[in-house]
């Protein structure tokens, strides 16, 4: 499965930024060892159901330890028996566009 998720506290820090809180969650994702990528809006994470949602729970637990309210948005592509989809889906589109 691939999960695209966004997590942030309900309000920014004193400078108007969410970066420090988001960085903590991204650090948890990176430490998980699962395939992942982070962009300006979401972090994509690939693995088995329990692995992926275990990491999401760790992110939520870390953020709620410091913030009274947290927003979590998750979108999943569930395709049993397939791995490496984080990169292969993009590669297929690039091939069609001639960017490969």
TrEMBL record:
SUPFAM superfamilies: MTH1187/YkoF-like (SSF89957). It holds the Pfam family Thiamine_BP. The lineage of its organism: Bacteria, Bacillati, Actinomycetota, Actinomycetes, Micrococcales. This is Uncharacterized protein YqgV (UPF0045/DUF77 family). Residues 3-93 form the Thiamine-binding protein domain. GO terms for cellular component: cytosol. Belongs to the UPF0045 family.
